[in-house]
Design a protein that fits this description.
Layout (H helix, E strand, L loop, with lengths): L1 E9 L5 E11 L6 E5 L7 E7 L8 E6 L4 E7 L1 H4 L4 E6 L2 E7 L2 H7 L9 E6 L5 E8 L5 E6 L6 H15 L2
Antiparallel strand pairs: 1-2, 2-3, 3-4, 4-5, 5-6, 6-7, 7-8, 8-9, 9-10, 10-11
Pfam family, one: LOR
InterPro entries: LOR, LOR_sf
Protein name: Scramblase
Length: 171
Amino acid sequence: MVNRYEIRTANPDGSEGQIIAMAQQKRLAFKEQVTFFADEARTQPVFSFKARQRMDVAATYDVVDADGTPIGSFQKDFKASLLRSSFHFSGPGFEAYGQERNHAIAIIRRFVDLPFSFHFDFTDKQTGQVVMSSERQFSLRDRYTVDVHDQRIDYRLAAAMAVGLDALLQR
């Protein structure tokens, strides 16, 4: 069993655009690694993320391009996530912190296994401005809308963070 991810652009009217990257992740992998490819045959890697540590509830995930050059990283804030999932998110020129937007939904999700819509906002640690948001749409298939509000965030880093949210919150 695998999780399949498609990263798509948004058309000007808000509809789904073309696929710009795709990935498959084995469920329950001990050392998380997800590689994104430019093609469905998975022959041309574009970027990936990988956990630095094995089986660590607060592991740091490094995001690299196809050549292995670092793009950024993200890490679950384990203590804060007990009641409201929270993440550190960084890349060249920025440090951000993200949390579930709705505290009540965050708590309910811990006790009820239903496909709740949940949203994350990532804010710049220096300015407090929202740099990225990820919104899960209510549907049978998981769908997310990711808005990047800050030009410093590489689309590959934003995509890795969004997929990381899905993968880490599914456990």
